[in-house]
Automatic annotation (TrEMBL):
Protein name: HTH-type transcriptional regulator
GO molecular function: DNA binding; DNA-binding transcription factor activity
The keyword DNA-binding appears for this protein: yes
NAD is among the record's keywords: no
Pfam families referenced in this protein's UniProt entry, alphabetically: HTH_20
SUPFAM superfamilies hit by this protein: Winged helix' DNA-binding domain (SSF46785)
Ranges where the HTH arsR-type domain occurs: 10-106
Family annotation (PANTHER family): ARSENICAL RESISTANCE OPERON REPRESSOR ARSR-RELATED
Keyword tags: DNA-binding, Transcription, Transcription regulation
Length: 123
């Protein structure tokens, strides 16, 4: 693309690239928490997740809040304990939609000479 050419809009990618989602996933401790929850396969308390990450409880709690606000986790309070769980379907759907949008934006490859020759000889 030449510098003076403008980029063409290629669909809903701008709406799908949620900075809050990527910011939440862009921190090593939060990735570790997500990994711990995914491996556990069930909702876990802040205390359980603190043991998994070897980080102070208040730090874990803050990171879990970021992940929840980004739509990555759900929080359920039972008495005084808060349990966090991965929103698997929402996370999967978000990444699939982003992957489709990126694919839609990818420049279409011109047919190779070989394909062009084949098409010409099959007439």
């Amino acid at each position: 693309m030449k510098p003076h050419e403008t980029l063409q809009c290629c669909g809903p990618i701008d709406d799908l690239l949620d900075a809050e989602l990527f910011k939440a996933l862009g921190e090593p401790t939060r990735l570790k928490l997500l990994s711990c929850l995914a491996k556990c396969g069930r909702a876990c308390s802040v205390t359980e997740l603190t043991e998994c990450c070897a980080v102070d409880l208040s730090v874990v709690s803050r990171h879990l809040g970021v992940l929840e606000r980004a739509g990555i986790l759900t929080a359920t309070k039972e008495g005084r304990t808060v349990y966090y769980a991965v929103r698997y379907k929402d996370l999967r759907d978000a990444f699939r939609a982003i992957a489709r949008a990126v694919e839609d934006c990818r420049p279409k490859r011109a047919a190779s000479k070989r394909q062009t020759r084949r098409a010409g000889t099959s007439r």
